[in-house]
Every structure is written in C-alpha cells, then in structure tokens.
Design a protein that fits this description.
By secondary structure, the protein is of the alpha+beta class. It has 7 helices and 17 strands.
Length: 292
C-alpha cells in the first residue's frame, strides 16, 4: 500500500464575503486577506501557495472544498466531497481558475447524496478518486492513517476518525514552513459545527466517534480551522478552540455523549438506499445511471 501511495505523491507533483447563499454557488474564501467567518471575525494569513474555495450544494446541505497549489506550474487541485448534482459547477470553476484537477476525494461513504467522483472522472481526464481503505468502498487510490495526499508542494494528512461510519477520515493540511497556517481540517461528518454526525447506521459507534474526535481532531492546534461536510444552521467554519469550548455534545464526558447520541431519535435517511450503494463504488458506478 505504501509503495502505491508514494506513486500517488509522485504523480501529484509531476502530472501534466458575506453570508452564505443557500444555493449551489461558490462561497469564495480568500487566504491572502482577512476573512470573516460565520462564527465571528478572524484575521489570519497563510501560505500564498494555497488557493481555497468553499462550495455548497443546497439539497443535501453539503460542502465541497476545492484546494490547489497556485504557485506550482501545473496548479494541481483536488476536490473534497464533491456532489453529483454540482459537478458541472465545480468543473467550470476549476477551468476559470486555470487549475488542473488531479484528485476527487471523499471523507467517507456518504448516505445523504451521491458522490460526484464518477462524473468528474468521466468529464476530466486523469482525475483519480480517493477514499479510505477502511471504508471498503471502491476507488482508484486508498488511504490509511498517516498517509499524505500531495498536490504540488502542498499536502493533506490523513487521520482516521471513525464513528459516524467505520471508514471516516479527516484530511488536515500539512504542518511545516511552506504549508498553510493556521492548519485546516476537513472533518466530513465526524465533527460538525456545534454538533457531530449520527452514529446509528453504517457501522457507527458513539464511543468510537467520541474517541476519534478527542484524539485526532481536538489534539490539533486550537487555531486550526474546521470545515465539515455539512451544515444546517448557516455556519461555514469553526476552530478546534471553539468546538472544545462550545460543542454541545462533544464537550460532555463520554458516557453523557453516548446517552445523547442514543436518544436522538432521528428519521431514516431519505437518500441512504440510493446513495450508499452508489458511493460504495466511489464514483466508478455506471455514470449513465442517475440517482432519482
């Protein structure tokens, strides 16, 4: 697996504001200027290498994230958690910004939407799909804890954060002098802003989720920005420091957290019977078959 992933790194290097509008449009976040988040006003700077955009799909309230090394000659880019319904929007933005999309990656096997990786692979030659090996889903490349997904001179570190599903991972920007600062963590459904993903299906475990968040996310620097896969309350970003103080579930002790999760009484996910079978083949499904 490691030798295969070294090839992934090699190919990645050399291969030729205001309030969120609840619609499938781009929310532009500039990392070379001041940024006002929904949780408050934060001023910060980061590596000028990183180009970053936060995108939103309104039906499933899903965030997709575009990251690229803007200083690299090829401007290699990747998409985190793309959605099938907004693939054309994403491709258009990639072209407008003069980027080369090389990876479409998922934080886990989603149950509330169909991944866009299949359509991306069919419309953008050379794009590779990535998901965790623990997900048991299909993809071009599989990652495990500690792996790095390189795009140009930047990279994402893979951290295992199971509990919402068995295969959940969090992708964290690199720690180093030439990497974006503060760091950024793309938490999928493991950690939401002032919440977390449910744990009552797809092999979920509230105890495992609690341990994952506390050991793999809350141990990051307090100023690390947290970008979830979903938000339903109008938020777009948080920080490790905020969530360790204000998350109403994960600030509790483990037994209280488990009791909260056991008594959510959530309805059956309306897209799960369509989304999970498609997402288990992680974008390699028959692209002519569309979710209904």
């Amino acid at each position: 697996m490691l030798s295969k992933f070294r090839f992934l790194q090699f190919s990645a290097t050399l291969s030729p504001s205001s309030a969120r509008i609840k619609a499938s449009i781009s929310q532009i976040v500039s990392f070379t200027a001041k940024f006002e988040s929904r949780m408050g006003s934060d001023s910060y700077s980061t590596s000028s290498k990183l180009l970053f955009r936060q995108l939103f799909e309104k039906e499933s309230s899903t965030y997709t994230y575009l990251l690229a090394d803007a200083s690299h000659p090829d401007k290699p880019a990747l998409l985190v958690d793309p959605v099938d319904k907004t693939v054309d929007r994403d491709i258009s933005l990639v072209k407008e910004l003069g980027l080369k999309l090389i990876y479409a990656i998922n934080t886990h096997v989603h149950a509330d939407h169909v991944t866009g990786t299949g359509f991306l692979k069919s419309k953008v030659p050379g794009v590779k799909s990535i998901i965790s090996k623990a997900s048991n889903a299909k993809a071009d490349l599989f990652v495990e804890p500690g792996d790095k997904i390189c795009f140009g001179d930047l990279f994402l570190e893979v951290r295992a954060t199971p509990g919402h599903t068995q295969g959940c991972v969090t992708y964290v920007t690199g720690d180093g002098p030439n990497q974006p600062q503060p760091r950024m963590a793309f938490t999928g459904d493991a950690l939401l802003i002032r919440g977390c993903g449910r744990t009552d299906f797809q092999g979920g475990s509230s105890e495992q989720l609690y341990n994952s968040v506390h050991s793999q996310i809350f141990t990051l620097p307090k100023d690390t920005f947290l970008y979830p896969a979903h938000d339903y309350k109008g938020f777009s970003v948080s920080t490790v420091g905020e969530e360790t103080l204000h998350n109403p579930r994960l600030t509790k002790d483990k037994e209280t957290f488990k009791n909260i999760m056991a008594n959510l009484n959530l309805s059956y996910p309306k897209m799960i019977d369509v989304a999970v079978p498609a997402n288990m083949v992680c974008g390699l499904q028959d692209i002519d078959v569309k979710a209904t």
